[in-house]
Amino acid sequence: MTRFSQRYNYHCDVPLASTLPRESFSCSSQLSRSHGPGFASLNRRDGAGGWSPLVSDKYQWLQVDLGERMEVTAVATQGGYGSSDWVTSYVLMFSDSGRNWKQYRREESISGFPGNTNADSVMHYQLQPPLEARFLRFLPLAWSPKGRIGMRIEVYGCTYRSEMVNFDGKSSLLYTFNRKSVSPAKDVISLKFKTRKTDGILLHREGQNSKHVTLQLVRGKLILLLNSGCANLPSPDAHATLTLGSLLDDEHWHSVLIELGNTHVHFTLDRHSQHFQAEGKCDYLDLDYKGNVSFSCSHPQIVPVTFLSSRSYLALPGTIGEDKVSVTFQFRTWNRAGLLLTTQFQHGPVALVLVLNDGKLRLSLSQPGHPARDITAGAGLSDGQWHSVSLSLKGNHLNVMVDGEAASVAHSLHGQIDSGETYYLGGCPDSSSGPGCGGPLAGFQGCLRLISIGDQAVDPIMVQQGSLGTFRDLQIDTCGLTDRCLPSYCEHGGECSQSWDTFSCDCMHTGYTGATCHSSLFEQSCDAHRHRGNSSGFYYIDSDGSGPLGPALVYCNMTEDTTWTLVQHNGSQLAKVKSLNRESPQPVFFKYTVSLDQLQAIMDGADDCRQELVLRCKKSRLSAGPDGTPVSWWVGRTNETHTYWGGSLPGAQKCACGLQGNCLDSQYHCNCDAARNEWTSDTVVLSHKEHLPVTQVAMRDTGRPHSEAAYTLGPLLCSGDNSFWNSASFSTDTSYLHFPTFRGELSADVSFFFKTTAPSGVFVENLGITDFIRLELRTPAEVTFSFDVGNGRCEVTVRSPTPFNDNQWHHVRAERNVKEATLQVDQLPSKTQAAPADGHARLQLNSQLFVGGTATRQRGFLGCIRSLRLNGLALDLEERATMTPGVDPGCPGHCSSYGHLCHNGGRCRERPRGIACDCAFSAYDGPFCESEISAYFGIGSSVIYDFQEHSNYTTSKNSSSFATLLHGGLTLAGEMATLSFRTTGTPSLLLYVSSFYEEYLSVILTPNGSLQIRYKLDRHQEPDVFNFGFKNFADGWLHQVTIHREAAVVSVEVNQNARRQVVLSSGTEFNAVKSLMLGTILGADPDTLRASLRGFTGCLSAVRFGPAAPLKAALRPSGPVAVTVRGHVAAASQCAESKGTRAPAREANRPISSGTDGGEALVSADRRDPAVIGGVIAVVVFVLLCLTTVAARIYQQRWLYKKNESTVPPAGDSAETALKSEVNMQSSVSESQREYFF
């Protein structure tokens, strides 16, 4: 049924109830005749001064019949005159026919109205939106604790008239427009409909060329189907579908508005809308009618019953004397499980139980001593649609039918089959212990209708009046099922699912988290990733946080001083341009890996953006041709054409060489403009953010003979984050920053960093008339998030075991949505508080947003706030602080919070926006001194680091440096040495540090692969030798060694877990350190020289002695380098990347030197080609030598074995003798030398 409506009173606020006769009022019961409903008009004092029911409970109601359909715009209530009786909250219901009531909801989740606080004051409530109905019913929910229910009411509104049309499912109405007389700027279609059917076409409109608009119901939802006619779609075959509403088969009026413009479609159902933007024009159609169309509206008398809670039930008597069981009904619910029906036969302990389980029906027939017989029928029955159920038991057959599909099973139960004495629908009384009752399965929550027992229809009105059966927690003559996913509060594509009393959001694969998928899982920028300690790589970033833009996959390049965001496109290859058949070549369009909106957000948040374009030309120009027209250009983000090139201002039409004056031909401003018959190029950098990124490049001057062009467009590069470090310092407790009102009605999140030494203070506050939102440091160890949306004050507090006022940065993130409020501070456990089930949902604010203080200038914040974001939108604190007394832009002191990001001896350096790690005194490199500096050593190669020469350079820079002590001839009372190695060769020298006084430290691998450390701190004594077991460290895996000496105490750590400590006997001071050697040693004491004739072949990394990093000095020279490289030493990406020593052929990406005999001090050398050749030769030689060495080693080990068999050592020195036998290179070591074994 549809209708066209018309309002006859423009001032729709006339009192309607006070003019009605007493007979228009009715009620559930009355305390006495003087308390009857006829005395319930507002301000009425006769009778008992209002209506009061016989019993004050939630099943009472007061009803008014307005006589005809009226538009109701407001209601008002009072208590009983001069009494202690009033209602504090109530539900308003409405109906066209006095049957099938519907609940009026103030908000999406609010059903109750606020009532009175005394007997005589008037509580007036405006209905937004108004409702149209003839009957209104007031259902008290709560009342005066010192009295009983007492009500006087008034209804305000005006007359409502409408033309109605009734359709029987086969009829139609055709309307014809005269195109010549009607030519509006847009088409507007409005109607109201009500139906009890879930499917059907309401409106179909056809135009020329099969263009049409169709409005139809599908499973209780309203769908608008559009094509390129009135749908304004670009393609004639294109279609669009807009869907609104749910549960529209409720026999209540629903309003539809369709606005069809030249470029848009606006679709509205009740209070919800969808918008579609397109192009084109609409056609105008015809109208006529045919079939069984009546211009009136019938009111089917179907009475539904609502089961409000899991404790609800309806008990109905069975049919006496029948030898069968027969029950039919229809149900609808969102719950996947619940008890629908249970009964026990009058004769014999046979029980019948029907439950909803996982969206399916399961019917069980059971008898003690016999196996139960089960039937499962239906699927997906918890979808909110009406489903019909029919079950019967007669003879030995049990049958159940769901939505017309039957399932049956035979049974062999003994005893008489008869009708149950009592049928319990939806649940059981508390006192019942019958089948299906008292178990883990909860009661049914949803709606039932068309109930029949024993072929006898059940009248729920009789149940309501108390003349049939019993019940608890029911609403009769209404189906209170609501769609909690309409509108869906799940954001960012989260999937909404629901039950009777709540909904949930599935955020899987959305990139967001939280109860409503509001909060982004990803950082806002590459800069934020950097300051979480992340290294370069691909990351998702979400530039607008919880805003509408999704996360974008970018490459974050973390360099030592800058963080770059790289966004790639589909045209990174060289694009060649050449004319065919004298036709101008078509431009190339570039599509980026993220959307243009995401690109704009990335660029808006960056400090600087640029894009490199390399242009290659052969007889092809860039600038204007002979007639002055541009022959080459590029297009930016806004589809504007640009003819300027990198390094110049927009409109200058000069390349960078033209501005710098170094073009190949001084007559032109670009190299390509010289149009030479040879390939020339211009490398340009486009850096105006407003025009980037490049979406199209056109080079059209390729029509002449032998003219060609090519270009390469690099990725979009952006650096910095203008919001992550945007901060303000609050120096007085009365100062604050103010911004426009925060708009976060249904979901709101606030995030920021703060640091302070003050014990308390308000970070953020925004007020409404009664609503508010506030974040504050309540105590030194408590951060509190408080707000009020109309349900009373709500607080969420995070407490820390350590104070927050430690002058370090702390991160706060608070979120409030319709389901819950959460607060997270740093990495502490988050706190959550659930929202009331049916409370107010909208946060309504109207004051300015205060940052760092409050409107009353009390409890102001002292300290710094940075990176403040509200619903993903960054606030510019620095700009507002420049014009606010008591607040300064910026906030120094980041190393106290972020200094831990600098590893391996790197030092934190303050920057205006963030920090930088100084790796000058670290053996590592990279943004956080975490990138190990590794080198592959070929056969006979070495690196020699000269401390004395190094000290000459560093003394002037740092008088307190380690090198200064050496240069002054002072001794070392202690030192720290670290290195990592990977090799398969033995014996090997890993590290050797010498002095001018013949003192040394050496680290070697013995022939059996065990680790040996030698200290000699007195040239007049023998060295101390430490042997680390018999484990073979030459196994091709990476091993780490750390040596720490304090005077005579030496601690050695191997692979970060094996720690040993010994005491030296050779001395306590390292005197006049001379040099550090890696690889082959040219001169050393006889013991070390014999143990390291082969030097070292393999990979070394992270080598450090005190502040000296020899590999870094060789591979990353930053000044005059006191390092000498001999042989083939090549930079390796990482020693740990692969096992074995065959990897360097792949790892060697920067040869250091290919010198042969003489060493050469490297300052800044680059000898790539000879080094590669030398590296290949070295590898070949190395393989041959390895084969020779293995053969010799096998023969040598066999000889040692035979020798050791003939000379068994005494028990006292067996370990020492065995090791000396194993280390054949030490056969002549003095017997007085000290050795230690671990």
Strand and helix map with partners:
Elements: E1 2-7, E2 14-15, E3 25-27, E4 62-78, E5 87-95, E6 102-103, E7 112-114, E8 123-143, E9 152-167, E10 172-173, E11 187-193, E12 200-206, E13 212-218, E14 221-227, E15 239-244, E16 254-260, E17 264-269, E18 272-277, E19 289-290, E20 293-294, E21 305-307, E22 313-317, E23 324-332, E24 338-345, E25 351-357, E26 360-367, E27 370-377, E28 387-394, E29 397-402, E30 405-410, E31 420-425, E32 446-453, E33 456-457, H1 460-464, E34 470-472, E35 474-476, E36 495-498, E37 503-506, E38 512-513, E39 519-520, H2 526-530, E40 537-541, E41 552-558, E42 563-567, E43 575-577, E44 588-589, H3 596-604, E45 608-618, E46 632-635, E47 641-642, H4 656-660, E48 680-686, E49 696-699, E50 708-713, E51 716-719, E52 727-730, E53 737-739, E54 748-755, E55 761-767, E56 772-779, E57 782-788, E58 794-799, E59 810-816, E60 820-825, E61 831-834, E62 849-851, E63 863-870, E64 873-874, H5 877-881, E65 887-889, H6 895-898, E66 907-911, E67 914-918, E68 924-925, E69 931-932, E70 934-937, E71 942-946, H7 947-954, H8 962-967, E72 974-983, ...
Structure write-up:
The protein has 1238 residues and is mainly β. The protein contains 13 helices and 86 strands. Strands 1, 2, 3, 4, 5, 6, 7, 8, 9, 11, 16, 17, 18 and 20 form a 14-stranded antiparallel beta sheet that branches. The protein has a nine-stranded mixed beta sheet with strand order 85-82-71-80-73-74-75-76-86. Strands 21, 23, 28, 29, 30, 32, 33 and 35 form an eight-stranded antiparallel beta sheet that branches. β74 (1000-1005) and β75 form a beta hairpin. The radius of gyration is 43 Å and the shape is elongated. 41% of the residues are buried.
